[in-house]
Please model this.
Amino acid sequence: MRQLYTIRNQRVVQADADDATIEFYTGLTEDERRHLVSDLEIDNHTINSALDPDELSRIEFDDAFTTLIVKKPRTYTVSKESESSAAAYDFKVTSLGIFVFADKVIVVGDNEIPILSDRRFSRLSSQKAFVLQLVGYCIYHFMDHLRIISQVSNELENKISLSMENKYLLFMFSLSKGLVYYLDAINTNGMLLRRMTNNQRLALSEAEAELLEDISIDNQQCYRSAEIYSSIVSNMMDARASIVNNNLNSLMKTLNIITIGIMVPTFVVSAFSMNVDLPFDLKANPWAFWLILGLAAVSLVLFSIYWKRRKW
Model:
């Protein structure tokens, strides 16, 4: 799908084909791909790189345009069908391709970006400022996802404290794996920002250079936060696994107490149900049934007192 925009009064607004200076492509069709390759002379391999989730962030300079490949988190959604599976906690990374021409900017991605509604795309002084804010949006998107991961981790921690199965541990493992991918993506974005800062071919104005510096600082803070979350999740997984094992051991202990507690009075009743002569002439005693039940109850009480004193 092709969406056309332009910068008017320092804001991004929709435009027609004649006035558009920003073209955003999502879900490339064959006709749109052919337009990019034939009319704009963007290499087909570069377009594939912009859509490859495993591609590293980078900047390349061609004669007619500059290519930026930026990493961003894939949009996180949970459906009712998948919320009980580990896939619901699978945070993935994707790529965004930005092609900067002299008179326009081409953006190629796998999902839409709220360019019109997001406040970061207001007060834009130039197309380069728009490109920098687009890179900044990818970084802020990572920070939003890190906050979601923190909330999900806290919820899982509460569930694990009462759980006796491995389901929630698998969810934590999915979170840990997603954080590893995030760390790598944020790190490659940092390398891209450093190259942009040290490259004179971009010819950034003083305001644009300050904006790039602010985005670089935000990326460093984002990387540090991702490191902290990843360390917490990884280090706590063993402790939470021990909690699950302890919960299971407590359950087994309770079941053993119940089983032995039932066996003691059962033994008493069984002893007096043998097909032999009973002591104390119990066969002729009309209270024999209640005496045997009383002995069974006394044996259960004595067993409970013994178990409690031994602190088993």
